[in-house]
């Protein structure tokens, strides 16, 4: 069973919760939405961590809309974290470490939204399956507009870890994520590109991925290469309608794929549990201690 | 050896690094300040994690001044985290769990700045040593103005876990942290106080602790009880000079105590290592996997 915790007053969180429920029902997954007071959420998550009938946990943010939300993200057991937000998972993602254990039986979970973009790029054959697994973006140049810790930066790292040259663009500056010439490195490195702007990045890019919040921003289409693939992960439309005349492929929204990826992660966690049991690997991958019951 | 990583352009970070060095030298601790490019900091920390000559690590923030800084805080090995910023430590603090292991041999580290305030309150005998350990603030009412994840909220939780009634005040609202009537609970609980402001909290408070950034804010002294103890942890002066006429005790700054606490945590980590070895406890308390060397 997937459990969703709704302790947010944000209408978008409520809509996301409803969508999750709908997608679960359509695909035969059990889903339980639990509406809880935000001051009781930490204990409710800990209880779900220790409840064997719960296979996965999703928490709808924002809740406190400050760093307390990041604290809560770390409360979810790593064995039930379908969103892939545990530090251990994020660390493995940046470090390009694909398994949780030295026996390579338990796959590390990737964060949902960046993974949704990856899955879309695989589907669109921008990942080239002729190339070896792990290097399938070798030769691609990709601009990612947004460098948030939630989507933009992890996405740039994932794409570079798979071999792409990535220009990560935010208001302040441009950074280049690569694995070095000839994919020398095991994982990406980052260099600043002083003075660079979209004027430098877009003409070089096969793929343009944008996730700028707010309804004002539009990607300057005139700078883009003819036939670029364009993906929007903002809740607003970052590409104006004329994008269809210039892009080879245009993906206006990724929400449905993100929920599918959430369910994929749920299956992955279940599979990890089965594989670990079959291989006799200690199932306690979580760093969290057992919590004594409250007095 | 304590290692400090300076990858921040913030002058205050540089000053804090210099103070740490000075305090270490005065007290016979080895200290090595390493100035690194922020893009190379993650690898530098990982290397120090694996270096047996390094006993403790401190990183001077802000660096990216966004959520990437919180990611970096989780990179430091739990066995070397003198600042007490690892999620495991923060989690134990909120949950009032005082040891890392079920054998109670390894003490959990507390975050430096909130712990500095606790140590000041102990020194000032606001902690009553007649009362049992763990309940020594029973009967005290304390207002904490600031509810950041770094200082204000952990401090309110620590004080309530030790038995105080705490009013946690920020711009938006007031929350009451307690362990319930008669210290019923093992750890604190939080309730919102709708409509409350400092006008309600200050007249009830034996102790007033303030950490509002910016030079504009002043605690309204006219609302305070005669003889209250006042502690300022802002880098600015949150109490106007007249506080000396009304307060029984006034502590204008806590920086030096914070660095002393940092060294105390360093000794604690060293002691944990010795105790764990003596008790034959597995020393691997960290959840981080061993990192393969880069290609």
Automatic annotation (TrEMBL), chains A, B:
<comment type="similarity">
    <text>Belongs to the tetrahydrofolate dehydrogenase/cyclohydrolase family.</text>
</comment>
<comment type="function">
    <text>Catalyzes oxidation of cytoplasmic one-carbon units for purine biosynthesis.</text>
</comment>
<dbReference type="GO" id="GO:0006164">
    <property type="term" value="P:purine nucleotide biosynthetic process"/>
</dbReference>
<feature type="domain" description="Tetrahydrofolate dehydrogenase/cyclohydrolase catalytic">
    <location>
        <begin position="2"/>
        <end position="83"/>
    </location>
</feature>
<keyword id="KW-0520">NAD</keyword>
<dbReference type="GO" id="GO:0004488">
    <property type="term" value="F:methylenetetrahydrofolate dehydrogenase (NADP+) activity"/>
</dbReference>
<dbReference type="GO" id="GO:0009113">
    <property type="term" value="P:purine nucleobase biosynthetic process"/>
</dbReference>
<keyword id="KW-0963">Cytoplasm</keyword>
<dbReference type="InterPro" id="IPR020630">
    <property type="entry name" value="THF_DH/CycHdrlase_cat_dom"/>
</dbReference>
<dbReference type="InterPro" id="IPR000672">
    <property type="entry name" value="THF_DH/CycHdrlase"/>
</dbReference>
<dbReference type="GO" id="GO:0004487">
    <property type="term" value="F:methylenetetrahydrofolate dehydrogenase (NAD+) activity"/>
</dbReference>
<keyword id="KW-0658">Purine biosynthesis</keyword>
<feature type="domain" description="Tetrahydrofolate dehydrogenase/cyclohydrolase NAD(P)-binding">
    <location>
        <begin position="111"/>
        <end position="172"/>
    </location>
</feature>
<dbReference type="GO" id="GO:0005829">
    <property type="term" value="C:cytosol"/>
</dbReference>
<protein>
    <recommendedName>
        <fullName>Methylenetetrahydrofolate dehydrogenase [NAD(+)]</fullName>
        <ecNumber>1.5.1.15</ecNumber>
    </recommendedName>
</protein>
<dbReference type="InterPro" id="IPR035812">
    <property type="entry name" value="m-THF_DH_NAD-bd"/>
</dbReference>
<dbReference type="InterPro" id="IPR046346">
    <property type="entry name" value="Aminoacid_DH-like_N_sf"/>
</dbReference>
<dbReference type="InterPro" id="IPR020631">
    <property type="entry name" value="THF_DH/CycHdrlase_NAD-bd_dom"/>
</dbReference>
<dbReference type="GO" id="GO:0005634">
    <property type="term" value="C:nucleus"/>
</dbReference>
<dbReference type="InterPro" id="IPR036291">
    <property type="entry name" value="NAD(P)-bd_dom_sf"/>
</dbReference>
<dbReference type="Pfam" id="PF00763">
    <property type="entry name" value="THF_DHG_CYH"/>
</dbReference>
<keyword id="KW-0560">Oxidoreductase</keyword>
<comment type="subunit">
    <text>Homodimer.</text>
</comment>
<keyword id="KW-0539">Nucleus</keyword>
<dbReference type="Pfam" id="PF02882">
    <property type="entry name" value="THF_DHG_CYH_C"/>
</dbReference>
<keyword id="KW-0554">One-carbon metabolism</keyword>
<dbReference type="GO" id="GO:0006730">
    <property type="term" value="P:one-carbon metabolic process"/>
</dbReference>
